[in-house]
Design goal:
With 297 residues, this protein is α/β, with parallel strands linked by helices. It folds into two domains: 88 residues, Leucine Dehydrogenase, chain A, domain 1 (Rossmann fold); 132 residues, Rossmann fold (3-Layer(aba) Sandwich), CATH 3.40.50.720. The strands form three sheets. The chain has a six-stranded parallel sheet with strand order 1-11-8-7-5-6, covered by helices on one side. A three-stranded parallel sheet has the order 3-2-4, with helices on both faces. Strands 9-10 form a two-stranded antiparallel sheet.
């Protein structure tokens, strides 16, 4: 039976460290990290996620500012709000909750966020910096995945990592992070156009599955002892549950956990790390603000 990689435990430990650093920032510089979240419309999943971010900020002592805009807000109105926050000295991080209403261009909005406040790591500037190995805000879920692998006591350098999924939010950036010199893995990126994904996963020491489809990864597709990071969150109808469904990842838990050396559960694996790394990035942005202020004084 494999070791369960506890994302909740790692998240709690990191948040305790962040809270200590926030307290030190207040004491030494008289400032606290500030995160602004813009929510357009009232998508229930987005509202729930924004609420979770507000709770997390409060937990570590950060300033949290929520800007709610109606679903019929124009793209220019949203861009104006982003520009206002770019100039706000109390705000270190700006996050525009996705998805946006169809009439608003997601790319235009992301591009408008100052790279210095892009704590999601989505702007082209930060993506480019990540790709060439420069210091930048790393995208939250991929960064959390790397932290989870390290938390499991796995040496990444020299290992073969297979990533299933090529989304701009998880698949591509996590492949890039694992290949950077800090991690130094050999990376294979698989996707819907890859014939016989199993031929690659059976060679892998580390498998990150982010396909958005339950059952994408099975135990017979793994090398014994491999580490599995399951990013998927899928609702499976289940009449025995009060809510009428259960959550499942992209990896088949029973078969994969019987073969893997370590595996993340769903829920409780990758999920808790995403907001934690958002807090981490916001703290780094505040430290940079304090450093700039000190150099100008």
């Amino acid at each position: 039976m494999s070791t369960k990689i506890d994302g909740k435990a790692l998240s709690a430990a990191l948040r305790a460290e962040i809270a200590q650093s926030v307290s030190a920032m207040r004491a030494e510089h008289g400032i606290a990290p500030g995160l602004a979240v813009i929510l357009v419309g009232d998508n229930p999943a987005s509202v729930s996620y924004v609420t979770a971010k507000e709770r997390a900020c409060a937990e570590v002592g950060m300033l949290s500012r929520e800007i709610r805009m109606p679903a019929d807000a124009t793209e220019e109105e949203l861009l104006a709000e982003v520009r206002r926050l770019n100039a706000d000295q109390e705000i270190d991080g700006i996050l525009v909750q996705l998805p946006l209403p169809r009439h608003i261009g997601e790319k235009a909005v992301i591009d408008a966020i100052s790279p210095d406040k892009d704590v999601d790591g989505f702007t082209p500037v930060n993506v480019g910096r990540m790709m060439i190995g420069e210091e930048c805000f790393l995208p939250c879920t991929p960064h959390g995945i790397v932290k989870l692998i390290e938390f499991a006591g796995v040496e990444i350098a020299g290992k073969h990592a297979v990533v299933i999924g090529r989304s701009n939010i998880v698949g591509k950036p996590v492949a890039a992070l694992l290949a950077r010199r800090e991690c130094n893995a050999t990376v294979t990126l698989c996707h819907t156009g890859t014939p016989d994904i199993a031929q690659f996963t059976r060679q892998a020491d580390i498998v990150v599955v982010a396909a958005g489809r339950p059952g994408t990864l099975r135990g017979d597709m793994l090398k014994p002892g491999a580490v599995v990071i399951d990013v998927g969150v899928n609702r499976i109808p289940d009449a025995t549950r009060e809510r009428g469904f259960r959550l499942a990842g992209d990896a088949d838990w029973e078969s994969c956990s019987a073969v893997a050396g370590a595996i993340t559960p769903v829920p409780g694996g990758v999920g808790p790390m995403t907001i934690t790394m958002l807090l981490w990035n916001t703290l780094q942005a505040c430290k940079a603000r304090a450093k700039r202020a000190a150099s100008q004084s």
